[in-house]
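help with this record:
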Amino acid sequence: MNNRIKDYLELFLTFFKIGSFTFGGGYAMIPLIRNEVRRKGWLEDEEFMDMLAVAQSMPGPVALNTALFVGSKRLGFKGSLFSGAGVILPSFTVILLIAAVFTQFKDNPVVERIFKGIRPAVVALIVAPLSSLGKSAGVRWKNLWIPVVVALAVWRLNVSPVYIVLAAILLGIFRFICLMKRGVDK
């Protein structure tokens, strides 16, 4: 088989596997994507974290955006198509099946209990990788207050994440300007 075709197939199957075995949405997929990307040597961790920051600030599902970025970085536009199709296809298929049969079972007590039992596991799947993602993003004890304040603002004060991202961009620009001025003064 042609090496290029093998590369496209590898991208598709990697993201298909991630999409098939991740419950809890896009954020639950991020650690799996990160581990696969690191294991396969497709991106350095710092590059992945930068790409993840961009993926989060773009419209659309974060897992899809991340898959598209990885695919594009790895094999260009066609690579993004294969990685995107791989990550979307399992969810699309499951949603299609659920839509077709769920209305028949939605009031079934066993089905209700199953979904209630899955919820804590989904939360754990999202929370568990926060430590390693935080370390890669540069979160340390001295600046841990930042993600805590942001999470509380979004959760308790209903601040839109859009405003958080815009504020972070402005603060980043301001910090860059301040550092440039200090560099000029030295």
User: Anything to note?
Assistant: The first helix runs from residue 3 to 20.
